[in-house]
Write a structure and sequence with these properties.
Distance between the termini: 27 Å
Number of helices: 15
CATH superfamily of the largest domain: Hypothetical protein af1432
Radius of gyration: 19 Å
Shape: globular
Number of strands: 0
Length: 287
Protein backbone atom coordinates (compact mmCIF):
# COMPACT_ATOMS: atom_id res chain seq x y z
CA UNK A 1 0.00 0.00 0.00
CA UNK A 2 1.28 3.45 -0.84
CA UNK A 3 0.41 6.87 0.51
CA UNK A 4 -1.53 7.60 -2.71
CA UNK A 5 -3.89 4.68 -2.21
CA UNK A 6 -6.08 6.39 0.38
CA UNK A 7 -6.47 9.81 1.96
CA UNK A 8 -6.67 10.12 5.72
CA UNK A 9 -9.96 11.10 7.28
CA UNK A 10 -9.82 13.94 9.84
CA UNK A 11 -9.57 11.36 12.63
CA UNK A 12 -6.89 9.46 10.72
CA UNK A 13 -4.94 12.69 10.38
CA UNK A 14 -5.23 13.28 14.13
CA UNK A 15 -3.88 9.81 14.86
CA UNK A 16 -1.02 10.38 12.42
CA UNK A 17 -0.13 13.61 14.23
CA UNK A 18 -0.26 11.76 17.55
CA UNK A 19 2.05 8.99 16.33
CA UNK A 20 4.44 11.53 14.88
CA UNK A 21 4.60 13.26 18.27
CA UNK A 22 5.44 9.96 19.98
CA UNK A 23 8.35 9.51 17.58
CA UNK A 24 9.67 13.07 17.78
CA UNK A 25 9.40 13.24 21.57
CA UNK A 26 10.82 9.76 22.17
CA UNK A 27 7.65 8.64 23.95
CA UNK A 28 6.99 5.36 22.14
CA UNK A 29 5.84 2.76 24.65
CA UNK A 30 8.23 -0.12 24.00
CA UNK A 31 7.17 -3.55 25.35
CA UNK A 32 9.59 -5.23 27.71
CA UNK A 33 11.93 -7.74 26.12
CA UNK A 34 11.06 -11.05 27.81
CA UNK A 35 13.76 -12.00 30.30
CA UNK A 36 14.31 -15.43 28.76
CA UNK A 37 14.77 -13.89 25.31
CA UNK A 38 17.31 -11.43 26.70
CA UNK A 39 19.25 -14.23 28.38
CA UNK A 40 19.15 -16.43 25.27
CA UNK A 41 20.54 -13.55 23.19
CA UNK A 42 23.24 -12.90 25.77
CA UNK A 43 24.32 -16.54 25.61
CA UNK A 44 24.27 -16.56 21.81
CA UNK A 45 26.58 -13.51 21.76
CA UNK A 46 28.96 -14.90 24.39
CA UNK A 47 31.81 -16.83 22.75
CA UNK A 48 32.50 -18.57 26.07
CA UNK A 49 28.97 -19.95 26.49
CA UNK A 50 28.26 -23.62 25.94
CA UNK A 51 25.39 -26.01 25.33
CA UNK A 52 25.03 -26.84 29.01
CA UNK A 53 24.27 -23.20 29.84
CA UNK A 54 21.64 -23.00 27.12
CA UNK A 55 20.03 -26.25 28.29
CA UNK A 56 19.95 -24.99 31.89
CA UNK A 57 18.34 -21.73 30.79
CA UNK A 58 15.64 -23.48 28.76
CA UNK A 59 14.96 -26.02 31.50
CA UNK A 60 14.35 -23.17 33.93
CA UNK A 61 11.18 -22.25 32.03
CA UNK A 62 8.79 -25.19 31.86
CA UNK A 63 6.63 -23.73 29.10
CA UNK A 64 9.66 -22.80 27.01
CA UNK A 65 11.24 -26.22 27.51
CA UNK A 66 8.07 -27.94 26.33
CA UNK A 67 7.80 -25.68 23.32
CA UNK A 68 11.44 -26.17 22.37
CA UNK A 69 11.20 -29.94 22.62
CA UNK A 70 7.99 -29.99 20.57
CA UNK A 71 9.68 -28.08 17.76
CA UNK A 72 12.92 -30.07 18.04
CA UNK A 73 10.92 -33.27 17.63
CA UNK A 74 8.91 -32.00 14.66
CA UNK A 75 9.35 -33.49 11.21
CA UNK A 76 11.14 -30.33 10.12
CA UNK A 77 14.03 -30.89 12.51
CA UNK A 78 13.96 -34.56 13.48
CA UNK A 79 12.33 -36.57 10.69
CA UNK A 80 13.64 -40.00 11.66
CA UNK A 81 14.05 -40.18 15.44
CA UNK A 82 12.69 -38.52 18.56
CA UNK A 83 14.78 -36.67 21.14
CA UNK A 84 14.10 -37.02 24.85
CA UNK A 85 16.35 -34.36 26.36
CA UNK A 86 17.46 -30.82 25.68
CA UNK A 87 21.08 -31.93 25.76
CA UNK A 88 20.31 -34.42 23.01
CA UNK A 89 18.43 -31.77 21.02
CA UNK A 90 21.32 -29.32 21.30
CA UNK A 91 23.85 -32.00 20.34
CA UNK A 92 21.85 -32.93 17.25
CA UNK A 93 20.57 -29.52 16.13
CA UNK A 94 23.30 -27.24 17.45
CA UNK A 95 23.14 -24.18 19.68
CA UNK A 96 22.29 -21.92 16.75
CA UNK A 97 19.03 -23.68 15.87
CA UNK A 98 18.04 -24.13 19.53
CA UNK A 99 18.68 -20.43 20.09
CA UNK A 100 16.38 -19.56 17.19
CA UNK A 101 13.67 -21.88 18.49
CA UNK A 102 13.96 -20.36 21.97
CA UNK A 103 13.73 -16.81 20.63
CA UNK A 104 10.64 -17.59 18.56
CA UNK A 105 9.03 -19.24 21.58
CA UNK A 106 9.68 -16.23 23.85
CA UNK A 107 9.13 -13.48 21.27
CA UNK A 108 5.64 -13.81 19.85
CA UNK A 109 2.39 -12.02 19.13
CA UNK A 110 1.23 -12.41 22.75
CA UNK A 111 3.72 -9.70 23.77
CA UNK A 112 1.53 -6.98 22.31
CA UNK A 113 -1.67 -5.44 23.64
CA UNK A 114 -3.67 -3.86 20.82
CA UNK A 115 -7.39 -4.64 21.25
CA UNK A 116 -9.09 -4.93 17.90
CA UNK A 117 -5.91 -5.74 16.00
CA UNK A 118 -5.05 -9.16 17.38
CA UNK A 119 -5.51 -10.90 14.03
CA UNK A 120 -3.33 -8.40 12.23
CA UNK A 121 -0.57 -8.83 14.82
CA UNK A 122 -0.64 -12.61 14.35
CA UNK A 123 -0.25 -12.06 10.59
CA UNK A 124 2.65 -9.65 11.16
CA UNK A 125 4.41 -12.10 13.42
CA UNK A 126 3.90 -14.99 10.99
CA UNK A 127 5.46 -12.90 8.23
CA UNK A 128 8.36 -11.95 10.54
CA UNK A 129 9.09 -15.60 11.35
CA UNK A 130 8.90 -16.54 7.68
CA UNK A 131 11.25 -13.65 6.87
CA UNK A 132 13.75 -14.87 9.46
CA UNK A 133 13.74 -18.36 7.96
CA UNK A 134 14.05 -17.05 4.40
CA UNK A 135 16.78 -14.70 5.61
CA UNK A 136 18.94 -17.68 6.51
CA UNK A 137 18.51 -19.15 3.03
CA UNK A 138 19.20 -15.85 1.25
CA UNK A 139 22.26 -15.35 3.44
CA UNK A 140 23.57 -18.82 2.61
CA UNK A 141 23.38 -18.39 -1.14
CA UNK A 142 24.77 -14.84 -0.97
CA UNK A 143 27.48 -15.89 1.50
CA UNK A 144 26.40 -13.50 4.24
CA UNK A 145 25.93 -13.87 8.00
CA UNK A 146 23.37 -16.67 8.38
CA UNK A 147 22.84 -16.43 12.15
CA UNK A 148 22.42 -12.65 12.12
CA UNK A 149 20.02 -12.91 9.20
CA UNK A 150 17.50 -14.93 11.19
CA UNK A 151 17.36 -12.39 14.01
CA UNK A 152 17.32 -9.43 11.61
CA UNK A 153 14.46 -11.00 9.67
CA UNK A 154 12.52 -11.93 12.79
CA UNK A 155 12.68 -8.35 14.11
CA UNK A 156 12.55 -6.39 10.85
CA UNK A 157 8.87 -5.48 11.31
CA UNK A 158 8.77 -5.32 15.12
CA UNK A 159 7.58 -1.71 14.83
CA UNK A 160 4.29 -2.75 13.23
CA UNK A 161 2.61 -4.33 16.29
CA UNK A 162 4.04 -1.59 18.52
CA UNK A 163 2.55 1.06 16.23
CA UNK A 164 -0.76 -0.81 16.32
CA UNK A 165 -0.67 -0.68 20.12
CA UNK A 166 -0.44 3.12 20.00
CA UNK A 167 -3.12 3.36 17.29
CA UNK A 168 -5.44 1.16 19.35
CA UNK A 169 -4.82 3.26 22.45
CA UNK A 170 -5.52 6.50 20.60
CA UNK A 171 -8.73 5.15 19.07
CA UNK A 172 -9.91 4.00 22.49
CA UNK A 173 -8.98 7.17 24.40
CA UNK A 174 -10.48 9.56 21.83
CA UNK A 175 -13.39 7.32 20.83
CA UNK A 176 -12.32 7.51 17.19
CA UNK A 177 -13.44 5.30 14.34
CA UNK A 178 -11.22 4.89 11.28
CA UNK A 179 -11.19 2.40 8.43
CA UNK A 180 -9.09 -0.73 8.26
CA UNK A 181 -7.31 0.75 5.25
CA UNK A 182 -6.32 3.83 7.26
CA UNK A 183 -4.98 1.65 10.06
CA UNK A 184 -2.78 -0.26 7.63
CA UNK A 185 -1.58 2.97 6.09
CA UNK A 186 -0.66 4.36 9.53
CA UNK A 187 1.11 1.11 10.36
CA UNK A 188 3.11 1.30 7.14
CA UNK A 189 3.95 4.97 7.64
CA UNK A 190 5.28 4.60 11.19
CA UNK A 191 6.53 1.03 11.59
CA UNK A 192 10.17 1.77 10.79
CA UNK A 193 10.46 4.63 13.31
CA UNK A 194 8.69 2.55 15.94
CA UNK A 195 10.83 -0.48 15.12
CA UNK A 196 14.06 1.49 15.51
CA UNK A 197 12.89 2.65 18.94
CA UNK A 198 12.18 -0.94 19.97
CA UNK A 199 15.49 -2.50 18.93
CA UNK A 200 17.43 0.41 20.38
CA UNK A 201 15.61 0.06 23.72
CA UNK A 202 16.19 -3.68 23.67
CA UNK A 203 19.91 -3.17 23.07
CA UNK A 204 19.99 -5.22 19.88
CA UNK A 205 23.25 -5.36 17.89
CA UNK A 206 23.88 -2.57 15.40
CA UNK A 207 23.42 -5.01 12.51
CA UNK A 208 19.84 -5.61 13.70
CA UNK A 209 19.17 -1.91 14.30
CA UNK A 210 20.34 -0.97 10.81
CA UNK A 211 18.36 -3.79 9.21
CA UNK A 212 15.17 -2.58 10.90
CA UNK A 213 15.86 1.01 9.87
CA UNK A 214 16.97 0.39 6.30
CA UNK A 215 15.53 -2.91 5.05
CA UNK A 216 13.16 -1.00 2.76
CA UNK A 217 15.90 1.38 1.54
CA UNK A 218 19.05 -0.67 1.95
CA UNK A 219 21.25 1.75 -0.01
CA UNK A 220 20.92 4.18 2.92
CA UNK A 221 22.50 1.79 5.43
CA UNK A 222 25.92 3.00 6.55
CA UNK A 223 27.62 -0.19 7.70
CA UNK A 224 25.29 -3.10 7.06
CA UNK A 225 23.75 -2.47 3.65
CA UNK A 226 24.21 -6.09 2.56
CA UNK A 227 22.38 -7.35 5.64
CA UNK A 228 19.54 -4.95 4.92
CA UNK A 229 19.46 -6.36 1.36
CA UNK A 230 19.16 -9.89 2.74
CA UNK A 231 16.21 -8.88 4.90
CA UNK A 232 14.58 -7.00 2.03
CA UNK A 233 14.76 -10.04 -0.22
CA UNK A 234 13.69 -12.41 2.54
CA UNK A 235 10.68 -10.25 3.36
CA UNK A 236 9.55 -10.35 -0.26
CA UNK A 237 9.95 -14.13 -0.39
CA UNK A 238 7.97 -14.44 2.84
CA UNK A 239 5.16 -12.35 1.38
CA UNK A 240 4.81 -14.52 -1.70
CA UNK A 241 4.96 -17.71 0.37
CA UNK A 242 2.24 -16.57 2.77
CA UNK A 243 -0.02 -14.87 0.22
CA UNK A 244 -0.96 -17.02 -2.77
CA UNK A 245 -2.48 -13.96 -4.47
CA UNK A 246 0.88 -12.26 -4.72
CA UNK A 247 3.24 -12.69 -7.69
CA UNK A 248 4.99 -16.02 -8.04
CA UNK A 249 8.47 -16.83 -6.82
CA UNK A 250 9.92 -16.34 -10.28
CA UNK A 251 8.71 -12.75 -10.38
CA UNK A 252 9.96 -12.02 -6.86
CA UNK A 253 13.37 -13.50 -7.59
CA UNK A 254 13.68 -11.09 -10.51
CA UNK A 255 13.57 -8.21 -8.02
CA UNK A 256 16.58 -5.93 -8.11
CA UNK A 257 17.63 -6.75 -4.56
CA UNK A 258 18.80 -10.20 -5.62
CA UNK A 259 20.90 -8.69 -8.39
CA UNK A 260 22.31 -6.26 -5.80
CA UNK A 261 23.31 -9.29 -3.72
CA UNK A 262 25.26 -10.57 -6.76
CA UNK A 263 23.26 -13.77 -7.03
CA UNK A 264 23.90 -15.78 -10.16
CA UNK A 265 21.43 -17.97 -12.00
CA UNK A 266 22.45 -21.07 -10.06
CA UNK A 267 22.01 -19.17 -6.78
CA UNK A 268 18.49 -18.19 -7.81
CA UNK A 269 17.72 -21.81 -8.66
CA UNK A 270 19.01 -22.83 -5.23
CA UNK A 271 16.65 -20.35 -3.57
CA UNK A 272 13.71 -21.63 -5.61
CA UNK A 273 14.31 -25.08 -4.17
CA UNK A 274 14.33 -23.87 -0.54
CA UNK A 275 10.59 -23.19 -0.33
CA UNK A 276 9.67 -26.55 1.18
CA UNK A 277 12.43 -26.29 3.80
CA UNK A 278 11.31 -22.81 4.86
CA UNK A 279 7.65 -23.83 4.93
CA UNK A 280 8.41 -26.88 7.05
CA UNK A 281 10.41 -24.83 9.53
CA UNK A 282 7.70 -22.18 9.63
CA UNK A 283 4.95 -24.69 10.36
CA UNK A 284 7.03 -26.21 13.15
CA UNK A 285 8.08 -22.97 14.82
CA UNK A 286 5.04 -20.71 14.70
CA UNK A 287 3.25 -20.50 18.04
Amino acid sequence: MTSTTIEFSPQGQEISIYLDSLVSQGKIEVPMLPDVASRVLALSNDPDSDAAQLAKLIQGDQALAGHVMRIANSAAYTPNASMISLQQAIARLGMGVLTEISLVASLNSKMFDAPGFEGRIVDIWSHALCTGLWGKEVARVSRKNVEASFLCGLLHSIGRPVALQSISECIRDKNYSISHEEVLLLEQKFHVAFGVAVVEKWGMPIIVQESVQHYQSYSDAKRNAEQAMVVNGASKLATVMLDPNEDGFDDVLNDGVFAALNLYENDIETLKNKGDIVKSGFEAMRV
